[in-house]
C-alpha cells in the first residue's frame, strides 16, 4: 500500500506545473498616470504706453470751450522756436488743467472768468470761440499783455487771467518732460533744464 501511494504521488508531481501554467494571470491593477501637460497658449504681446500718448486727453476741470481757449492762449504765449518745444508740444494746457483743478478757488475763478471772457469777446467780434480764431484775430483780444506791468491787480478779467497764465504756461513748459528731453539732446545749457520734469499724476 505504501508503494502504491508513492507511485500515485510521483504521477501527480509533473501535473502541478502544468496546472499552474494553465491558470490565467490576474489582470494588473491600473496604475494612476500623471496628466499630460498641455503647452501653454501663447498670449498676445502688449506694448505698454503712457495714457496721454495713447488717446487724446479730456479736460477734467475746464469745460471743452475753456480748454480750447487755454490751448490757443498757450500757443500764443509760448510757441515752438529755435528747436525748443512750445507750450502745446510740452502739453502745458493739459498740466494746467490738473494744476488749476487742485488750486484755491480764487485762482480757479481767475482762469475760468478770463477764458469765458475771451470766448465771449471772440464770439462778439469774430463770430466764433477764441480757440478757433486765427492768430492775428486772437492777438487783438490778448492786447492787455502788451500793457506795462503794475502792482495793481487788473480789473479786467482777461487782463487778470493773462497776467497769471503767462507765468504758469512758461513754468509748465520749461518743466515738462518734452522740454527736458530737448534740453538734454539739443543744447542743455542754452535751453536750461537738467532732466527733472513734471509728470501726469493720473
Written overview of the protein:
The protein has 202 residues and is mainly alpha-helical. The chain has a domain at 63-186. It contains 9 helices and no strands.
List keywords for this structure.
202 residues; mainly alpha; 9 helices
Can I get a quick summary?
With 202 residues, the chain is an all-alpha fold.
Residues in β-strands, percent: under 5%
- Give the rounded overall mean pLDDT: 78
Instruction: Give the biggest sheet.
Output: none
Q: Summarize the helix and strand pattern as letters.
A: HHHHHHHHH
What integer value in Å does the Rg equal?
A: 42 Å
Q: What is the helix tally?
A: 9
Distance between the termini: 111 Å
SS-derived structural category: mainly alpha
- Uncertain residue segments: 15-20, 188-199
Helix content: 40-55%
Task: Write down how many β-strands occur, each being a DSSP E stretch of 2 or more residues.
Answer: 0
Global shape: globular
Give the secondary structure arrangement, pairings included:
Layout: H1 2-12, H2 15-22, H3 51-54, H4 64-77, H5 92-101, H6 105-126, H7 135-141, H8 157-174, H9 177-186
Helix pairs in contact: 4-6, 5-8, 6-8
